[in-house]
Amino acid sequence: MDTVWIFMILKCYLFIEITTICNAETVISALHHERLIYIERELIQLVEKVLKDGNAEDAPDENTPRIRRFIDTVNEENTEAYNELPIYTHHPLNVLRIVHRLVNVWPQYTKNIKALSSCTSVISSTIDNLLGQITKDWLAKIAYSISKTKQLYNIELNSIIDGDVNGHITSRKLGLDEYQILARAAHQKEDYAEAIEWYEALLDAHRKSGVKFNTTKLLNTLSSCYIKNNRIQDATEAIQAVLEVDPNNARALSNEVYVAQLGTARSESGTPTAEKRDYKYEQLCSGNLKKPDTVQRKLKCYNKETGVFLRSKVEVVNRRPLVEIYHNVIDDHSLDELVNDSAKRLYGVIVDENGYTSDSFRAVYRANRFYTRLVTRPLFYATQQAKWLNQALLVTNYGIGGGEDPYVHLYQEDTLGLVITRAIIFLNEVKDGGDFLLPMTETKITPKKGSVVIFKQTDKYGKIRKKTSVFAECPLIYGSKWVAWATFTEEPEKAPSRWSLWR
Fold first, then answer.
1. pTM for the model
2. Residue 467 in 3-state DSSP?
3. How does residue 16 score in pLDDT terms, banded at 50, 70 and 90?
């Protein structure tokens, strides 16, 4: 009982100190911010519940109490206080997270056009109140998402988003700026088929308007999209159109050479390179891989004592390069603490380095040093890969649809000249999808909470690959995936003190 009273007195004292330091306006803004975060979490939980249950009748609309409360909270007058808050707590980002949930995720689970139309009307009214605080890049992403929904499900949206940052939602005809914003948004999302449609519409609109513009630049961009979409003939015609106007155009000449090389590869293999890569990726993600018997015989599984930490089971899934899975390395409590701390800091952060949002809701955060040690110390004792470990433990969260193309993970040469070993730590149970891939060795690993995958950036012949992709991840089908990345150095005597595990 004495302990409870001491705790209550301490709590009151801290509250008095905080209110003394902060003025009343700051306290009110903080409370309002917490309320908004709480309501937004409730809304996302509601959407996820509806998606999980698959009951289209429970689709959220503008009359749903939680959505109504959220919109009312956003519309309150004191929301200007958010301009002083850090980027990951700025409320327009949280609003846009809901936008992408409703527009990009909801159509995958329901064909209920009426319910989806209600969602888009809520989105439009919410965005209308926040346009003054959203940059043109954000605007492009929202416009692209709504246009994509309209295209796929033929929904009659009553409005489109104006390209002006300080503008408002209008029902007028698309102008040249809007075409350009939508085309660039689709291009940034690597949806080349959609980008081609908008670029072609932009080209046609320019020609009809009679306004002078840089035709070569637009045709060069269009030809690049044609190449990415494997429309070689269309790409060739666009390149020739540029060369007729400017025979020395460097980009057009470069594209012409690339198209010729691609045509040679197509004639030799019968399949374009891009299609072969995608096929291999899909085969790894969906197929049941079985290694040859000669390889299987060299693989093994054994138990390993790790001192004061948990006893781990080691599974060797590939020999050259060496790929090992350490099961039960880290206890659940430490993992949950790391995830909870990261969730607070990652909340609302869904922008990449270019300022664009991502369908995968992939966000990266450098973990707090305290939580880093909770994970890295048992990891060091279990693997004993090296005496030195990079202090930067990167935590990543993947949402539905998250996953990376296996040909985009490029490792650059390390500045210290050290051979690097990577470790991926699975922090939660993944319900469906999200497998970890090593395309070079055709190895697929299913995420399990507390397991650690250790692999070196080498090819199947043991050669260090410093500028070649070696790993990928399958998209999630349901739920979310939390992973952490650690880096080992294999020459501890050359490692600087800032890489020390015990610093």
1. 0.43
2. coil
3. very low
**Cβ(192)–Cβ(201) below 8 Å:** no
Which one has a higher pLDDT value, 146 or 451?
A: 451
* Dist CA 488 CA 456 (whole Å): 10
Whats the size of the chain, residue-wise?
503
**Distance (Å, rounded) from C-alpha 476 to C-alpha 361?**
11
- Sign of torsion, CA 433 436 437 442? negative
Cα maximum dimension of the chain: 88
Phi, psi of 205 (to 5 degrees): -65, -40
440 vs 463: CA distance, rounded Å: 12
452 pairs with which residues across the strands?
326, 425
Name residue, tokens 């060369």.
243
- Determine the residue type at 44: I
Domains identified in the chain and CATH numbers: 29-196 (no CATH), 206-282 (no CATH), 291-499 (2.60.120.620)
Mean pLDDT value across residues 53-58: 43
Rounded to 10 degrees, the C-alpha dihedral 256/257/261/262 comes to -30
